[in-house]
Amino acid sequence: MKKLIIMTILAAFLLGACGQPEAGNDNKLLISAASSLSGVMEKAASEFRKTGQDVELSFNYGSSSKLRAQLEQGAPVDLFLSASEADMKLLEEQQLIQKDTVVPFAKNRLVLASSAELAESAEFGALLEDVETIAVGEPESVPLGRYTKEVLEGLELWNSLDGKLVYAKDARQVLTYVESGNAALGIVYASDAATSEKIMGIAEFPEDREPVVYPGGIASGSQNREAAEAFLKFLAGPEGQKLFQEFGFISASGEGS
Predict the structure, then answer these.
(1) pTM value?
(2) CATH assignment of 110-204, among 2.40.30.20, 3.30.590.20, 3.30.70.360, 3.40.190.10
(3) Residues 52, 212: Cα–Cα separation, whole Å
(4) C-alpha torsion sign, points 219, 217, 135, 139
(5) 55 vs 48: CA distance, rounded Å
(6) Cα–Cα distance between 23 and 82 in angstroms, integer?
(7) What is the dihedral of CA 46, 47, 49, 55, to 10 degrees?
(8) pLDDT 10s digit of each residue in the chain, 257 long?
């Protein structure tokens, strides 16, 4: 009988322990970030730790639309770093992001990129016409693809390029297609082109366009709001802005390239 009582108590203890939050969660920050941020985030995480913050940063990269969908489906997220204001807005409307925490932390622009050198005198449309494959983001699910379609439609080039386009699942895959030679050209973020050692040719679009704004916001279900606030403040502050410019982004204030 005594043995049965001890076993019952032990079982109750183990069941109770299983229901407790995992130890150390308070020191872990779960961040969903646009794939175009993967390079700069590694450096940002390193610099953030130097400020004395005792927190482990865990990154989940993907297209902003895919990350939004994950958050909508209940994925654990503390901080969302998006390359799309539209996706952030949708989460705000569903009260999945705390609206009062949303701030722009960087900007970017689109460029035409190649693993080979591009003739500086070549006309933009001619560059596109002279190749068989052009890597772009999927317009329906990738912000980069949506921006690409908008700018090419504005130049009246989208329809004529239909048979040449190779679609990618996110900005990082577009860059990979170009770097590997699986696509002769690609429309990528300037930050990705600037930091890639395999991109030899870059061409600017012929018309000025408003830069892509990257907003960051804290998830309503965040289990570590204090750390999320600290990291977002770091990114939007002077040290973070300097890092973004080093990686080819435009600062949130519009300065830099």
Answers:
(1) 0.86
(2) 3.40.190.10
(3) 32
(4) positive
(5) 9
(6) 29
(7) -70
(8) 444 444 444 444 343 433 333 333 568 999 999 999 999 999 999 999 999 888 999 999 999 999 999 999 999 999 999 999 999 999 999 999 999 999 999 999 999 999 999 988 788 989 999 999 999 999 999 999 999 999 999 999 999 999 999 999 999 999 999 999 999 999 999 999 999 999 999 999 987 789 999 999 999 999 999 999 999 999 999 999 999 999 999 999 876 55
Here the tokens at position 43 are: 């450096």
Amino acid at 15: L
In CATH, 26-107+213-246 is 3.30.365.10: no
Cα 24 off chain centre by: 26
Distances (CA, A) of 38 to 41, 45, 158, 244: 5, 11, 29, 12
